[in-house]
């Protein structure tokens, strides 16, 4: 069975306030997106990768990431849309023939592991849809206008991460439904969930962080030092 990874990395990185888009910021001397793509490409069950990048960075992505780091599994670098939904849909529309399963992984999560990828692929092959997630350890409160209203149980709450994997027809249905309804989602499990389908959970990791701020980048540098 053929599994293709879509890596959406078309965001502006506005929350970092950087002059350079965050996916091209250096982490240990290497672009953040290169770390992510290399780790996904190293997974044996991934047959091909589609990188979805900003339109003005396509050449840079091809030369400074795909070619420079010899990521042969990348079969296409393509311009993304204005939203995540649009970017993933563009990647989906360009899947190669014979694709059975689609794995989606944030370009800004450089510490994805083969274990995570294998786990969500296995669950999606069995059930149709899967994501990694981690348990919540902090106390949760409902807040209104800066004032605590009530406490929430942590027992049935998780923090969703990527990678997420779906049978091709399941993700296709979810993306089409979200597009028709004008829905904007921060991940693909949300749109599949809205179809009334079960999304099964594999164990994520506290180290599988998403780089959103400069503080995240500092944490990532520390993690990289630990791994190396």
What can you see in these coordinates?
With 228 residues, the protein is α/β, with parallel strands linked by helices. The chain has one domain (2-227): Spore Coat Polysaccharide Biosynthesis Protein SpsA, Chain A (Alpha-Beta Complex). The protein has 7 helices and 11 strands. It has helices at 32-41, 58-67, 84-93, 114-127, 168-181, 188-193, 214-227, and strands spanning 2-8, 26-27, 30-31, 48-53, 74-79, 99-104, 129-135, 140-144, 147-152, 158-167, 200-203. Strands 5-4-1-6-10-7-11 form a 7-stranded mixed beta sheet, sandwiched between helices. A two-stranded antiparallel sheet has the order 2-3. Strands 8-9 form a two-stranded antiparallel ribbon. β4, α2 and β5 form a beta-alpha-beta unit. The protein is globular. The chain starts with a strand and ends with a helix. 39% of the residues are buried.
Keywords:
27% strand, 7-stranded mixed β-sheet, 2-C-methyl-D-erythritol 4-phosphate cytidylyltransferase, two-stranded antiparallel sheet, 2-C-methyl-D-erythritol 4-phosphate cytidylyltransferase activity, 11 strands, 228 residues, Spore Coat Polysaccharide Biosynthesis Protein SpsA, Chain A, IspD/TarI, 7 helices, globular, nucleotidyltransferase, alpha/beta
